[in-house]
Design a protein that fits this description.
TIM Barrel, 8 strands, alpha/beta, 43% helix, binds 2-phosphoglycolic acid, eight-stranded parallel β-barrel, globular
């Protein structure tokens, strides 16, 4: 059975001290109850080693927001998958639309990153999604299908460590959420592509998260769809109460 997951993506927000405070606060809020979904927080690299020992690993998983497409060596400024793993982190977000757009990450680069992340024992939250012009031209399905090439050459065994996140770019940080119908339609399509590539059983076991202006007020309606298995949360993950409000959508 696939898991329901609420994952936070802090992006380039919070100093180390602020990040520690946020992680502590979330840990405190969740200490008295068992969430009805897996909870993950993905933080900037420098927060990872401080945040992982602060949270109850049984309730909160920790992840990075990126990792290098090279194993190690002379790549000034890069952070490898092995380094991420050595902090105690278990997850890494790859393929976020901001990385694709601003740092020119390609389908091929991302395939390398995914391979290294998995080889180092990380689970990958792999993001896909179309931009507004592609949606307006009704090209969202072909765009998403092409982006999935970065993970569809994995073995089924490796693919079991992939969590997908459908994030329509026009909904990220814009306050404009996909309707529950738009989300369900795309998630069902993505699941059909997984089934075609890996078979029904793998498709049924893969968690597909929705991302893009997800908040406490719309999370329940989005997550109620049969193919929406949770959310990847940006802005609303920066306040413990808001993030908890989204986790509670599974109660
Ligand atoms: P948002 O970001 O929730 O702020 O729209 C989501 C994401 O980019 O992962």
């Amino acid at each position: 059975m696939r898991k329901n997951i609420v994952a936070g993506n802090w992006k380039m927000n919070k100093t180390l001290q602020e990040g520690i405070e946020l992680a502590k606060e979330l840990n405190q809020i969740l200490s008295t109850e068992t969430p009805h979904c897996d909870v993950i927080i993905c933080t900037p690299f420098i927060h990872l080693a401080s945040v992982t020992p602060l949270v109850d690993a049984a309730k909160i998983g920790v992840g990075a927001e990126n990792c290098a497409d090279k194993e190690s060596g002379a790549y000034t400024g890069e952070v490898s998958a092995a380094m991420v793993k050595s902090t105690g982190a278990q997850y890494v977000i790859l393929g976020h639309s901001e990385r694709r757009a601003y740092y020119h990450e390609t389908i091929e680069t991302l395939a390398e990153k995914v391979k290294l992340a998995l080889a180092n024992g990380l689970k990958v939250i792999f993001c896909i999604g179309e931009v507004l012009e592609e949606r307006e031209a009704n090209r969202q399905n072909e765009v998403v299908a092409a982006q999935l090439a970065s993970v569809f050459s994995l073995t089924a065994q490796d693919f079991a460590n992939i969590i997908l996140a459908y994030e329509p770019v026009w909904a990220i940080g814009t306050g404009k959420t996909a309707t529950p119908e738009q989300a369900q339609e795309m998630h069902a399509y993505i699941r059909s592509l997984i089934a075609k590539n890996y078979g029904n059983e793998v498709a049924e076991d893969t968690s597909i998260l929705y991302g893009g202006s997800c908040k406490p007020s719309n999370a329940k309606e989005l997550f109620a769809n049969p193919d929406v298995d949770g959310g990847l949360i940006g802005g609303a993950a920066l306040k413990a109460a808001d993030f908890k409000g989204i986790i509670d959508a599974f109660n």
